[in-house]
């Protein structure tokens, strides 16, 4: 007996349950829409399952492993430190499970219908959602596409048991003795640092002149200095050519300064970027416009050229950041509900969980000048901060970018411990239109790393207390 595929009608269909999709679904439901969210994978997407969250858990475990070896300068000596890596992986999985089950609870609590399956567009108001057994038609008034991205596979480095993408690197069963990392961007730096802290010998091959190319050189230099202390080898202007795999390891061939070199290791991790998941979902059936990189074109409300379909996250222009996707998800859900929400990326932070951490928001000094602003760049070092010194972690600085004529804060960059948490105050300052004087007049608790923000503001005003 054949059961008829009667269409299920919804107000808003969200395709993809990552940090963009699930946030969009919840906000749309809060605004009174009948919402269905569909994903072929686990709730939380790449970020919660095989990206941001597990990588930060692994990074934290690596920090603890490194700290467990003690610090002779502080008079702390330890012996026989051991790491049970299977326990590390169990703990990492428990963090992920708490968050993914939390997402499921939030969706259900907001009366969002969750469907597991692959989505294919039939027309501008219809999709088929398929699992291994069934195919169900859904019709919708509005749709938000949030299908995310996938690691780029480079020629001659097909992903395998020994040639890893970020997911593979997060799920290793043992701590490698040696690992080659191709790509010195934020993912390669974060995972390379985590394993270096566990004792892995790391070799980074970066095609550009510097690692962490999206950040100012003076910021990446702070990280580079710390990586060298961990005995990480960084080879820049190096082009990966190929890999030979054996059951015990890999032999990577690369070219640097016109000369071919090889390096042997247990694994090679390829982190050269991500590509948008916009193929094979039927977008051509609907006529949705993409650019030459496969990114979906949107307006300032995340609306595609098909007026009832929206797109957010890694599949649209801009950096592939989870918080960017969540922000765009809220804008799209509110736009569908008739609100005047529009995207504004000025106070969008970017963070690298390197050692020490890097964070930036708003304009850099050069970007501000290129945009025609007359600016002042005020720097304050972590080395002049009591809390940083007491943490024995005083490398780095904060740089505050202000307009010369009125002191308006338009950007900030931090290289140092807890930069990921400290950047939010600067994002708020930019969003609220605050000046350096506003920050300097805000009493910051002592002794804290947060005082560095106040001190940098005083440098901008020409009245620093704790530096000459």
Automatic annotation (TrEMBL):
Active site location: 446 (proton acceptor)
Compartment(s): Cytoplasm
Disulphides: 47-52
Family: Belongs to the class-I pyridine nucleotide-disulfide oxidoreductase family.
A Pfam match: Pyr_redox_dim
Free-text cofactor note: Binds 1 FAD per subunit.
Entry EC number(s): 1.8.1.4
Biological process terms in GO annotation: 2-oxoglutarate metabolic process
Keywords: Cytoplasm, Disulfide bond, FAD, Flavoprotein, NAD, Nucleotide-binding, Oxidoreductase, Redox-active center
SUPFAM superfamilies to which the protein is assigned, alphabetical: FAD/NAD(P)-binding domain (SSF51905), FAD/NAD-linked reductases, dimerisation (C-terminal) domain (SSF55424)
Lineage, uppermost ranks: Bacteria, Bacillati, Bacillota, Bacilli, Bacillales
Signal peptide boundaries: none
Residue numbers binding NAD(+): 183-190, 206, 273
Catalytic reaction list: N(6)-[(R)-dihydrolipoyl]-L-lysyl-[protein] + NAD(+) = N(6)-[(R)-lipoyl]-L-lysyl-[protein] + NADH + H(+)
Note: The active site is a redox-active disulfide bond.
UniProt keyword Flavoprotein present: yes
GO cellular component term of the entry, any: cytoplasm
Keyword Oxidoreductase carried by entry: yes
Protein name, per record: Dihydrolipoyl dehydrogenase
Domain FAD/NAD(P)-binding: 11-329
Enzyme class, broadest EC rank: oxidoreductase
Residues binding FAD, per UniProt: 56, 147-149, 314
């Amino acid at each position: 007996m054949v059961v008829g595929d009667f269409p299920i009608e919804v107000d808003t269909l969200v395709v993809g349950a990552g940090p963009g999709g699930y946030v969009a679904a919840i906000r749309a439901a809060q605004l009174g829409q009948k919402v269905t969210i569909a994903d072929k994978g686990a709730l939380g997407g790449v970020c919660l399952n095989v990206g941001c969250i597990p990588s930060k858990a692994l990074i934290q475990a690596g920090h603890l492993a490194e700290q467990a070896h003690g610090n002779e300068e502080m008079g702390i000596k330890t012996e026989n430190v051991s790491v049970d890596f299977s326990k590390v992986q169990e703990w990492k999985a428990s963090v992920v499970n708490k968050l993914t089950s939390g997402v499921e609870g939030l969706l259900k609590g907001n009366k969002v219908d969750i469907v597991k399956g692959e989505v294919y567009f039939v027309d501008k108001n219809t999709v088929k959602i398929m699992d291994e057994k069934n195919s169900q038609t859904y019709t919708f008034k509005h749709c938000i596409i949030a299908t995310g991205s996938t690691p780029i596979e480079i020629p001659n480095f097909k992903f395998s048991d020994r040639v890893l993408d970020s997911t593979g690197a997060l799920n290793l069963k043992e701590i490698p003795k040696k690992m080659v990392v191709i790509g010195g961007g934020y993912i390669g730096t974060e995972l390379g640092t985590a394993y270096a802290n566990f004792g892995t010998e790391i070799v980074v091959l970066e095609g550009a002149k510097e690692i962490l190319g999206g950040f100012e050189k003076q910021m990446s230099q702070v990280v580079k200095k710390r990586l060298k202390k961990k005995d990480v080898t960084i080879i820049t202007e190096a082009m990966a050519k190929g890999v030979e795999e054996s059951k015990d390891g890999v032999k990577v061939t690369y070219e640097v300064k016109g000369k071919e070199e090889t390096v042997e290791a247990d694994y090679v991790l390829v982190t050269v970027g991500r590509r948008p998941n916009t193929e094979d979902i039927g977008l051509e059936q609907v006529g949705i416009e993409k650019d030459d990189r496969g990114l979906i074109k949107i307006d300032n409300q995340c609306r595609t050229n098909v007026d009832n379909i929206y797109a957010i996250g890694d599949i649209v222009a801009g950096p592939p950041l989870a918080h960017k996707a969540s922000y765009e998800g809220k804008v799209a859900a509110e736009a569908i509900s008739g609100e005047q929400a529009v995207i504004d990326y000025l106070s969008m932070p970017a963070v690298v969980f390197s050692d020490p951490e890097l964070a930036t928001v708003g304009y850099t000094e050069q970007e501000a000048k290129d945009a025609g602003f007359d600016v002042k760049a005020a720097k304050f070092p972590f080395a002049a901060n009591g809390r940083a010194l007491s943490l024995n972690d005083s490398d780095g600085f904060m740089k505050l970018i202000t307009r010369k004529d009125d002191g308006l804060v338009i950007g900030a960059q931090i290289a140092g411990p807890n930069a990921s948490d400290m950047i939010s105050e600067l994002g708020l300052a930019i969003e609220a239109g605050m000046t350096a004087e506003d920050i300097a007049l805000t009493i910051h608790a002592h002794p804290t790393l947060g005082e560095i923000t106040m001190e940098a503001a005083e440098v901008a005003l020409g009245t620093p207390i704790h530096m000459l």
